[in-house]
Amino acid sequence: MAVHVIGTYHSKVGKLEESIYDLLVQAGQGALADARVQAADIDGVWIGNFSGGGFNSQEHLAPCAIDIHPDLRFKPVTRVENACASGSAAIAAAKQAIEAGDAELALVIGVEKMTNLDTAGVTKVLAMASHWPEEGELGMTFPGLFAEYAKGYMERHNISPEDLRTLLAKVTAKNHRNAVANPLAQMPWDCTYQDILDRPDKKNPVVAEPLRLFDCSLVSDGAAALILASEAKAEELGLAGIEIAALVHTTDYLALDKRSKSEFVAGKQAIQKAYELAQITVDDLDFAEVHDCFTIAEVLAYEALGLVPDGQGSRAIEEGLVEVGGKLPVNPSGGLKAKGHPVGATGVSMAVLATRQLQGQAIGHQVEGAKIGLTYNIGGSAASNYCLILKRN
Amino acid sequence: MAVHVIGTYHSKVGKLEESIYDLLVQAGQGALADARVQAADIDGVWIGNFSGGGFNSQEHLAPCAIDIHPDLRFKPVTRVENACASGSAAIAAAKQAIEAGDAELALVIGVEKMTNLDTAGVTKVLAMASHWPEEGELGMTFPGLFAEYAKGYMERHNISPEDLRTLLAKVTAKNHRNAVANPLAQMPWDCTYQDILDRPDKKNPVVAEPLRLFDCSLVSDGAAALILASEAKAEELGLAGIEIAALVHTTDYLALDKRSKSEFVAGKQAIQKAYELAQITVDDLDFAEVHDCFTIAEVLAYEALGLVPDGQGSRAIEEGLVEVGGKLPVNPSGGLKAKGHPVGATGVSMAVLATRQLQGQAIGHQVEGAKIGLTYNIGGSAASNYCLILKRN
Fold this sequence. Notes:
The structure is a homodimer. Chain A is of the alpha/beta class. The first copy, chain A, has a domain at 4-118 and 219-236: Peroxisomal Thiolase, Chain A, domain 1 (3-Layer(aba) Sandwich), CATH 3.40.47. In chain A, 35% of the residues lie in helices and 18% in strands. Chain A has helices at residues 20-35, 52-56, 86-99, 119-127, 142-157, 161-179, 193-198, 231-236, 265-278, 295-304, 313-318, 335-338, 346-358, and strands spanning 4-10, 44-48, 77-81, 105-113, 206-208, 211-212, 221-229, 242-251, 287-290, 372-379, 384-392. A 9-stranded mixed beta sheet of chain A has the order 3-2-4-7-1-8-11-10-9. Chain A has a two-stranded antiparallel sheet with strand order 5-6. In chain A, helix 3 (86-99) packs across helix 13 and helix 6 (161-179) packs across helix 10 (295-304). The first copy, chain A, is globular, with a radius of gyration of 19 Å. At the A-B interface, helix 2, strand 3, helix 3 and strand 8 of A face helix 2, strand 3, helix 3 and strand 8 of B. Strand 3 of chain A pairs antiparallel with strand 3 of chain B.
């Protein structure tokens, strides 16, 4: 008995006027309205939020969900946190509550409000998602951690800095271009990879060698929400259609030094297990939304998906496989790079984008006839890994 | 098919030398050893932690669980946060994962390391569990919020400040006395309520009128852990015995101004619903561990439990009902007031204490022949409420 997605909401992404409370409430109300479900019928609410404490001085965000509708008062509301995968963690918890028989209808909200802080402040809060004593406290930042991946990848596969830079620029350009069709995206830009390479150093500085500014995803405010239903409830409401075929969560050591710097080891396991549960292969996927917090992460995701063998991530780009219209469009929404990355919201955002694709109501590029979509959402430097596969019946 | 508790661990509570990482690892290893379960057989880990970010600059604590044992690598590990009820929230999530069929064996750890910060720092971090814009940011602290309850209670029930002070001093003294038998407790003290009343103002100053220093629970480091098992797995292992008869979670508005200041409205609902699910009444309980973050909260808990009618909390104390040996011993461990209150660990701590009571291996006073125990754990000013009922078969 699969869990179904019967309603969605996605906010604009960017530097928004709304507070974290406003974003939470709008997202919840939007998803309820989309599913035409009454708040009174919701059995529980799960909130994915990375650091309301660090960004907004608000821990214990869960009870604020009652402001969505007074009929949510007294219901169980829970915040789940696994860094930038907090949104997927909230989906997983809600799905288990439904499968446990504790809920027929669940509201899942991912939300983050990051732009209150300046760049130094955001960098500090994000660094708390790394192993603090071994990484963040020593001055390691997330661009620094993903630069380690970029270097590990070049070294393992004998890739020159020039070739890597071109590859990453092509990922950047693809995602900015994809975002042009996405009315909610933070940074749409109709550009070519040559535009990225040609930017003067001042306008695309090195952030952490070899990663430059345009290899980094954005600092964003945003929220997204889903209504999940048991199969029986979805059918009763006449809203069955998009089902969770698999949701797999794997964990690796928090500190990057304890694991591979050239591949997402735990991510591969999550994806392969999800394929097994959904009884599909990568060839069955119609699109994927993956965690391009840095461009190198998208390249490693191509390989984790099994779209191309390890070390051949560039083929996915060079052969046009991951373009809209290609074999497996990756991040047709623009991804974290160009849609934006409100970190605790991102897992739910990906799931909403995937659902809308499967409903034929894509936010942005529609992959015609899409029946199976995948999201791959990571927390930290891929210590927390979630792979979600959604299917249209 | 009930979920069973088959292993427990409880750290010392107080100002400890161990880091948050050490506490987490010791707790996990301790519970595995107690249940004699292999890490490889654990299907998932859930961590209750309030503010690793605020206290320790460590969000994304979940992957650190792999340091408990390398065989936990790649398994799902999730952090759950609902303020001082984070521990109960983690138990609830793990229970649902088992009931969903996603896990047969789950490790649940509650952990908090608070004493790194000075009093002002702790007060600020804790205030993030209140509604920040309407409470914390305006200077409202948790002693202040519970002082509102104390004033609301006096006003509604026409209780004089002197009578309230005597009542609260009796709660304080009972819990310090109970802690004398608890080798893990932070502040055991064989005292009488007169000792509390007689303390000079300098040694028991007003923190937030009418609450004084000795009405407040402690700033603590500590961790506790449980192994949960499906009924089938518990029986297979020969460890069935203590089962979760009910675990109910209710939520109220985060800001106290939006709800009653003289009772725990949502808490009453959680407790009543738990009684229904467990098919018991208050008369069937052999003991309770309740959330005495401030002495007034314990009095309100007596009433939420239905032990005495609203406004008659003092009867529970005056008639000796809640003493060890009384009708319903409350906080035989010493409670948050004297055992200590490592906030994100507290829900798991209560569940461990209850399990050990039911096993006849109490940490502290043993209630002879105890068969049914209850825990009542709250987050914020009772916005998040969890009632757990455990039964010995």
